[in-house]
Specification:
It is a single chain. With 410 residues, this protein is an all-beta fold. It has two domains: 219 residues, Jelly Rolls (Sandwich); 112 residues, Immunoglobulin-like, CATH 2.60.40. It is built from two helices and 22 strands.
Length: 410
């Protein structure tokens, strides 16, 4: 005979936590709406019990791959950020690659709320890479953004990484966390089970009580997905606990993405958070991601028409002093480059007069001596315009596609 006890049969406080077996109260045993705010005692939900829950939990910027300020497609044989902001490739003499910000229209990642992805396709293969050849997908993080992990202390926290991945190839790949401040690393493997299918992967890396991250704006942690490499990077054993970093552990589980021009690899939904729990992805608005990305890259100009690049004045007959203001301020004083070396620009000044010039007309990209992380003056010299009297004006795109680009990546 089964005896049923009603809640009214118990005195208040008769059933305590100590009297309940571990996992005795499960979600399936709770009636809908039985746990409401009125039933939770003051102080019962503490910070410890809500670690990584809520806004700001994701350390990754642009993890949903929404922002691609530079371009949506690019071909490369070298290292850098080419399309999706903050997402870098490290390449050394292994193949030629087409990168893109891919638009998603279906699949499991789409159903999880993702509309964009970073994708790389092999356009020139290298099936037998030399010992020093390699290609990695990389994300780099400032030390001052990692304090919550308490690395190097007795209270150090675990690292939980989640991402969605898709490839025409199946097999085992690896992800390495590299602590550049202390030359330490730890790794995990993931498996792509079905070709051309979005799959979510969740990896939890152990805490590290040795070596604190520097509290500054330099690179402290790098997350590295191994895509292909030569024997200098494949001969070690992938460390499941933190150990000294070395090249030999960087591609132990070599994915060999460069062995055929049929190969592609795509990723989205990257989230890194504190602790052992993988929580729901923190979807940010496009405006939020764009603002955060501009700490590392900003550009001035336009794709067409006569977009203003900068306000200027003629410091001499062969110099233009250009004023740039960065919003938000950049991570550090940036480097400067042109999007197009040959695309024509216009210097327009008093009385609506103007002169055209191209990047090839200039002897250098500008002296950065008066530039700070929040902006300042850039001087362009080497082009004789013969304008006198410190004439104020503007530089603008001459009905084409050109930008002045400022980069402060890690």
């Amino acid at each position: 005979m089964t005896t049923k006890l009603r809640a009214a049969s118990f005195q208040d406080g008769a059933v305590t936590t100590a009297k309940l077996a571990a996992d005795a109260v499960t979600a399936a045993k709770l009636a809908d709406n039985s746990v409401v705010t009125a039933n939770i005692s003051d102080g019962a939900v503490t910070q410890v019990k809500t670690t990584s829950v809520g806004q700001g939990k994701n350390i990754i910027i642009n993890g949903a791959m929404q922002v691609a300020q530079r371009a949506t497609t690019a071909n490369t044989t070298g290292s850098g950020v080419f399309t999706v902001d903050r997402m870098a490739l490290g390449i050394d003499n292994l193949g030629t690659w087409a990168t893109q910000q891919e638009s998603l229209t279906s699949g499991a990642a789409y159903n999880a709320g993702f509309r964009k992805a970073f994708r790389i396709d092999c356009s020139v293969a290298d099936a037998s890479p030399a010992s020093s050849d390699n290609i990695f997908f990389q994300y780099k993080i400032e030390g001052q953004d990692l304090n919550a992990f308490k690395k190097g202390t007795s209270a150090a926290e675990q690292f939980t990484l989640q991402f969605w991945v898709k490839s025409n190839k199946t097999g085992t790949g690896q992800v390495l966390l590299i602590d550049g401040d202390n030359s330490r690393a730890v790794g995990k493997t993931y498996t792509i089970s079905s070709a051309n299918t979005w799959e979510q992967k969740i990896l939890t890396f152990p805490a590290d009580t040795t070596g604190s991250f520097d509290h500054d704006n330099a690179k402290s942690l790098e997350i590295e997905w191994a895509l292909d490499a030569g024997s200098n990077f494949t001969g070690g054993t992938l460390p499941e606990t933190w150990t000294s970093s070395s090249n030999q552990i960087r591609s132990v589980n070599d994915f060999a993405l460069g062995d055929s021009t049929d190969n592609d690899w795509a990723i989205t939904g990257i989230q890194l958070e504190v602790g052992a729990l993988a929580t729901d992805f923190e979807h940010k608005t496009f405006a939020e991601d764009l603002h955060l990305c501009k700490r590392y890259f900003q550009q001035f100009g336009g794709n067409s028409g006569y977009a203003t690049v900068a306000h200027v004045y003629a410091a001499s007959s062969q110099e233009l002093a250009c004023d740039f203001r960065f919003n938000p301020p950049m991570r550090a004083i940036p480097s400067i480059s042109w999007h197009s070396a040959s695309q024509s620009m216009t210097y327009r000044y008093q009385n609506n007069a103007s002169q055209n010039f191209s990047r090839n007309s200039l002897s250098n990209d500008g002296s950065l001596g008066q530039l700070r992380s929040d902006g300042g003056s850039v001087w362009f010299a080497g082009w004789t315009h013969n304008v006198t009297g410190s004439a104020a004006g503007e530089i603008r795109v001459n009905n084409g596609h050109n930008f002045v680009k400022f980069t402060s990546e890690l």
